[in-house]
Amino acid sequence: MDDIPRDQLTGALRRGAVKKHVAAIHVSGKLTLLQRKLSNVLLLNAYDTLTSSARHQIDARTLCLMIGYNSNDMDTLKQSLRGLAETVAEWDMLDEKGQQEWGVSSLLSYAKLKGGVCEYAYSPALAEKLHDPKVFALINLNIQRRFTSGHALALYENCYRFVRTGSTGWWPLDLFRRLMGVEGSAYYETFKHLNAKIIKPAVAEVNRTSNIIVTPDTKKMGRAVTDIRFRIKENPQLAILDIDNGEGARHGPVYARLRALGVSDRLARQWLTAHGEEQVLAKLAYVEAKEGVRSRIGYLSAALDGEGAGGAPALPAPQSAASSPPPPSPSPRAERLRRILEAVKARTPTQRDADRRLFMSQLPDARLRDDFERHGWMSPLNATRVAQFWRDMAPGLFEGIDG
C-alpha cells in the first residue's frame, strides 16, 4: 500500500509517525478504530508545539481523509471527537527524581469545529507526558492506516513499544482486557471467549498488517488463565512500512517494476529519490502503454529528465526524419489509463489515500486486493473495476473514448 505522500504535507504532519508515551496508550474506555486513528493523527499534528501551544488546529477535511474517512458527514467526526474528550488516560510511573507519579486526564480537554477547521487541546499534564522523549513508542501512520480492527490496532500500540526488549512482560488478564477496551464485559471474563474473539483475530491482523510479529503466551493458576504476555519480533516482510529509518526504496512496487524493465539498481533509486514514486509511476505507465518503442529505458529516461509541453514525456531526439516516424496514437485502453493517472495526480495526498481505501473496500476477494496493493491503479486484474470507479468518480473523464 502506498505511503502518505509526506512531500505535500507540512509541519509535523510530514513526520509520518507519532511519539506515543506509555501514558497515552493505557486508556480507559472503549475507543473505536476510527477514534484510535483520529487520536494518533491529532497527536502527530500537534507534536511540535505540544508543550508550547495551548491549542492546535487542523483542516477538518484533511483530518477525515488522513484517517481514511472519505465523507463530508461531519457528524461522524463530531462523535469521534466527543469520544476522545470523554475517554480517560491514566499513567502510573516514576518521575525524574524516582518518585511515583500517578495521574489521570481526558485524552482531549476540548475540541471544536468551526469554518472547516478542527481546533483542539490537551491538558497541560497530559501534553507534558505525550511530549516526553524518554519513554515512547513510534506509531507509524502508514501502518495504522492498514488496520481494520480497533482491537488489533490497540494490541499493536501496546506491543510495539516493547519491540527492542522482545516481550511485553506478563500482564494480568484484567489489565489486558482494559487495554483492549473490553473490561466490564461478562462475556469476555471467560478466557475461551476472550481468546477466540479478541486475542486470535488481533494477533492475526497485527502479524499480517504491521512491521512486527507477536506470539501470545499464557500463565495459569490451576486450570484458569491468569496472565498473558506477547513475544515480539520484527516482521521482515513488512519492515518497509516503518518509513522512519529512510530505508525501503528497494522494496517498493515501483522499484520492482523499474528493475523488471532493466533499469539498474542505482538509477532506479536515483529516479525515485529525485522524482518520487508517483511521478515515476506515471511516466512508467506512459512508456509501457506506448507501442513500437525499441528502448523503453531510454524513452523513460527522457520522460523523467525533461518534460514536453503539457507535462507529456519528452521523446528522445530523433536521428532523422526518415528513421523516426511520429509515435502511434495510444490505444483506448492506454488513453484511459493515462487519464486515470492524471486524475489521480490532480487529487490531494489525503484524497488519493481515501480513494485507494474506498476502492479497496469494494474488491470482493483477497486476490484482487493483493493485486491492487502491488500495482495500484495499474492493477491488471482490476482494470475493468478501476475504469468503472473513475467513471463514477469523475464523470466525463473518458469522453471521446467510451461509446
From TrEMBL:
Domain Initiator Rep protein WH1: 18-159
Ranges in coiled-coil conformation: none
Ranges of Low complexity composition bias in the record: 310-323
InterPro entries xref list: Initiator_Rep_WH1, WH-like_DNA-bd_sf, WH_DNA-bd_sf
Region described as Disordered: 310-333
A Pfam family: Rep3_C
Entry similarity comment: Belongs to the initiator RepB protein family.
Record protein name field: Replication initiation protein
Origin species: Paracoccus angustae
